[in-house]
Structures are given as C-alpha cells and as structure tokens.
C-alpha cells in the first residue's frame, strides 16, 4: 500500500489519517501523512481522490469521520478516517417498511 507524504508547510507535528470513498462495486481507502491542523476538506483535496472520482461533489456530498457526519472545516486528529458519502438510492425508512410488510405476509401465509 502506497502512503503519500503531504507536507505543504513544515510544522512540528505530522499525523496519519485515511480518506475513504466507496462505490457499490469498489472501495478506496487512501492512507495519508498530513500536518497537524489540516481540515477535512484539505485532506480530501490533498489525497487526490477528487481526481480519481470526478463524480464527488463536496458542495453536495456529505462527509464524515468514522461514520459521524462533520463539516468540511473540521480539523482532523491522528488516525481519523475521513469518509465521503454517496447520495442514497432508496429511502431507508421506505425500504424497511416494505420489508416488514413482506415479512408479515410471509408469516400469515399470504403471497402476492
């Protein structure tokens, strides 16, 4: 696995982070070494992931750290995993209710 060293301005401390993006058929996890004080947006830009996946739109796509949605100006900490989320294809509430309704039909012996 290739690790990119990103040091635009030399500071007293560097840290390891990861930038993650997942498509339905492919997941990308990029390890980076960045300077202390780097923001989530800066890490995404420095990782080069925007060149690899031009469909990422930081003005629309949500971002987070370890599954928790955070803003682009969030300052990262050592070992953070920056995540870029794709828009949902289906409404999760609707899918759950449809699945529950089908389960009720199956239990009652009715099939459509």
In terms of topology, how is this protein built?
Layout: E1 4-5, E2 14-22, E3 27-35, H1 40-47, H2 49-52, E4 63-65, E5 68-69, E6 81-84, H3 92-108
Parallel strand pairs: 1-3, 2-6
Antiparallel strand pairs: 2-3, 4-5, 4-6
Which segments are poorly predicted (pLDDT under 50) over 5 or more consecutive residues? none
- The first-to-last residue Cα distance is 50 Å
Count up the domains.
1
Q: Order of strands across the biggest sheet?
A: 1-3-2-6-4-5
The percent range for strand residues is 25-35%
CATH superfamily, please?
RnfH-like
Number of strands: 6
Assign an overall shape. Answer: elongated
CATH topology: Ubiquitin-like (UB roll)
Helix fraction by DSSP (H/I, runs of at least 4): 25-40%
Number of helices: 3
CATH architecture: Roll
For this structure, the quaternary state is: single chain
Gyration radius from CA atoms, angstroms: 19 Å
| Class based on secondary structure composition and strand pairing | alpha/beta
Order of helices and strands: EEEHHEEEH
Major beta sheet summary: 6 strands, mixed
Q: Which whole number gives the mean pLDDT?
A: 85
Kindly provide the name of the CATH class.
Alpha Beta
């Amino acid at each position: 696995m290739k690790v990119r060293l990103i040091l635009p301005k030399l500071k007293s401390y560097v840290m390891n982070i990861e930038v993650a993006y997942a498509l339905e058929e492919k997941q990308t996890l990029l390890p980076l070494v960045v300077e202390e004080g780097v923001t989530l947006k800066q890490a995404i830009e420095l990782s080069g992931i925007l060149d690899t996946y031009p469909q990422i739109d930081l003005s629309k796509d949500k971002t987070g750290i370890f599954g928790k949605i955070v803003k682009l100006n969030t300052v990262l900490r050592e070992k953070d995993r920056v995540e870029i989320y794709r828009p949902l294809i289906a409404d999760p509430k609707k899918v759950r209710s449809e699945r529950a309704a089908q389960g009720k039909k199956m239990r009652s012996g009715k099939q459509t």
